[in-house]
Amino acid sequence: MPHVNAAGPHGVPRDSIHSFTAMPAVPVAIGLGANIGDRLGRLEDACRALDSMLADQRCSAVYESEPMYLEDQPPFLNACCAGRTMMPARSLLEALQAIERGAGRSPGGRRYGPRELDLDLLLYGDHVIEEAGLQVPHPRMTERAFVLWPLAEIAGDRLHPESGETIVRMAAALPRDGLRLHAPALCAPRAAE
User: Fold this and answer.
1) Annotated active-site positions, please?
2) 54, 28 Cβ separation under 8 angstroms
3) What is the domain extent for residue 123?
4) What is the pTM of this model?
5) pLDDT tens-digit profile of 5-52?
6) Coil, strand or helix: which one is 152?
């Protein structure tokens, strides 16, 4: 007769409770962008909101660039943040979307169009995730200088889970033309407690 574990809290088998609660934090990278209203203020607010979700948060400098896909709109400000989280990928994505809504972004809207705030989950550890509404690594990050150059500042040695290339090497393959430094790093590193 097979051995059956008695269920612990929330239906998790007792044998796996220790490993479940001891799960290590996952390194993540998030892209930030805005091109409507107080662009820099919205990125700063988003950085502060992310601070509650990410341990060891690091943020890149802020860059201005012309729109890439839909050109008839104002220039974007972009940056990246990296850190570690205990949140599952789907929960993190939902939290990012809540921050976007808090900044005034409405669900839907014109694809690649103007936005008050855009937060993209770029990397979630070395996971490759393809689910409805959630793709990690971000499927277009490799073609975007406004993502790879800021990300290379704070996580240049990270490997893209599909190509195996470092972020810094991928950034170097994209022209930096049109990417203008706009402001220093969004968030200063927190002092160790």
Assistant:
1) 105, 115, 118, 120
2) yes
3) 25-140+178-183
4) 0.81
5) 343 333 333 343 333 444 579 999 999 999 999 999 999 999 999 998
6) helix
